[in-house]
Design goal:
Blueprint (H helix, E strand, L loop, with lengths): L4 H15 L15 H10 L27 E6 L4 E8 L1 E6 L2 E5 L6 E5 L2 E7 L2 E7 L2 E5 L4 E6 L2 E3 L5 H17 L3 H22 L1
Parallel strand pairs: 1-9
Antiparallel strand pairs: 1-2, 3-4, 3-6, 5-8, 6-7, 7-10, 8-9
Helix pairs in contact: 3-4
Length: 202
Amino acid sequence: MLRHVPRLLSRTNAAAMRWSLPFSTDVPAETPVDSKFVEGWRSVIPNIDPPKTPSAFMSPRPPTPSTIPSKLTINFVLPYSSIFSTKEVDMVIVPATTGQMGVLPGHVATIAELKPGVFSVHEGDKVSKYFVSSGFAFIHANSYADIVAVEAVPVDHFDQSLVQKALGEFTQKLSSASTDVEKAEAQIGIDVHSAINAALTG
C-alpha cells in the first residue's frame, strides 16, 4: 500500500497545479461570464436581466507594462470620499501592520493591512502626510496602488495639546475600566492617540 503513495501524491499535485490560478491583483480585461448560468436564468426568468457579480462593476486595470514606469499611480479612498484618484506620484509610505512599507513603481503585487499611523505621499520635493486609522493597501503589479482607509486626516490638522489631553483621558479610562468592553475601547483610544502623538512629535 505504501509503495503507491508517491504515485498518488504526484497525481494530486498535478491536479492541483492544473486547477490553481496564479495570484494577481489585476482586474481582468473582460468580466468572465458563465454562459450556462445566463442561459438557465433566461430560460426561467426571461424578463429580468441576470444578476451582476462585483467584478462587473470594476473597471479593468491596464496591463502590466514590460518596463517599469517612472511614476506610481495611486487611488486613495475613504468610505465617503476620494482623496486621490489615479494620481501619479514618486513613492508612498504606508503604515502596514508589519511595519512602514515604501512603495515605488514596479513594486511586487502585495496586499497589506494598515494600522494607525502616517501615510506619506511623495511627489518630488513635496510630501503630503495623512493620519490613517486602519484599512488596506492593494499594490498591483502594474505600478498601481489602491489605498483604502477607514478614516484619514492631514497631519497638520491636528492640535497636539488636544491629542495629548485625549491620550491622558483614555489612559485614565483604561486604569478604571471594569469590563472587557471598557478595557478594549480604552486601549483602542490609547493606541490611536499614541500613534497620532508620535506622528506629530516625530
